[in-house]
Amino acid sequence: MARRVFFSFHYQDVIDFRANVVRESGAIKGTGREAGFFDASLWESTKRRGPEALKRLINEGLEDTSVTCVLIGSQTYARPWVRYEILKSMKRGNKVIGVHINGVADKYRQTKEPGPNPFDYLGVTYGSDGKTLTMHEYVGNIWIPYGDIDGSASFQITPLDASHWGHAYDLSHFYLTYSWSGDNGYENFSNWIA
C-alpha cells in the first residue's frame, strides 16, 4: 500500500529548486496537495491571514498522511513552521524522516554543505510515570517548552517501556536522516518511508 507523505521544507529550497528535485523525482506518487506540497501562492495568501490560518493549512495538509519527510536545507532547522510541522506530525503518530537536500544542485548548479539537522533542535521529555510527553525546542542556547500545538507543550500518551520514563531526548534519537544525493534518494526513497 502506498504511503501518503507530507513534505516539510523551507521555501528557499523551493526557490532554489532543491525541494523540487525530490518532489518531481518520480519516486514520489501524487502531486500538489496529494503529495503534501503547497503552492507558494497558497502559502503566502494564508500567511497574510495569520498564524491560526497557517496552522489550519498545515493540519489539513497532514490529514490522511502517514509519513512526514523533512527536506533539510541550510536554514530548515530554524524555521518556526517546519518545527510546528515536525512536532504536529510526531503528535499525530506519523513516521518522520529527514532528507538532506543541499547535495542537490540548485538552479545555478551549485551544491552546499549539509544543513543542521532540525531533529537536534526539537526534543521531548517523558513524564516520570510514562503517561505524558512534553515537547521542547532549542532557542537561543536553551531548551524551552513548545506550547504552539493545541495550546500546550504536554499531552497524554500510551506509556512506552519504563526505560524512557523521566528522560529527555532530542528527536534525532528517534528519527533517521538520509542524504538525497549521498544515499541515492531517487532509488531508495520508497524504502525510507516504508
Plain-language structure description:
There is one protein chain. By secondary structure, this protein is α/β, with parallel strands linked by helices. The protein has one domain (5-192). The chain has six helices and nine strands, in the order E-H-H-H-H-E-H-E-E-E-E-E-E-E-H. The strands form two sheets. Strands 4, 5, 6, 7 and 8 form a five-stranded antiparallel sheet that branches. Strands 1-2-3-9 form a four-stranded parallel sheet, covered by helices on one side. Helix 4 (51-62) packs across helix 5. The relative contact order is 0.17. Residues 29-37 have low confidence and may be disordered.
Name a few traits of the molecule.
194 residues, alpha/beta, four-stranded parallel β-sheet, 6 helices, 27% helix
Number of distinct helices = 6
Helices and strands, in order, run as EHHHHEHEEEEEEEH
Provide the residue-averaged pLDDT.
Answer: 87
Number of beta strands: 9
Shape: globular
Distance between the termini: 9 Å
Secondary-structure class: alpha/beta
Number of domains: 1
The residue ranges in which pLDDT falls below 50 over 5 or more consecutive positions are: 29-37
Q: What share of the residues does DSSP label as strand, in percent?
A: 15-25%
Proportion in helices: 25-40%
Largest sheet: 5 strands, antiparallel
The Rg value, from CA coordinates, equals: 17 Å
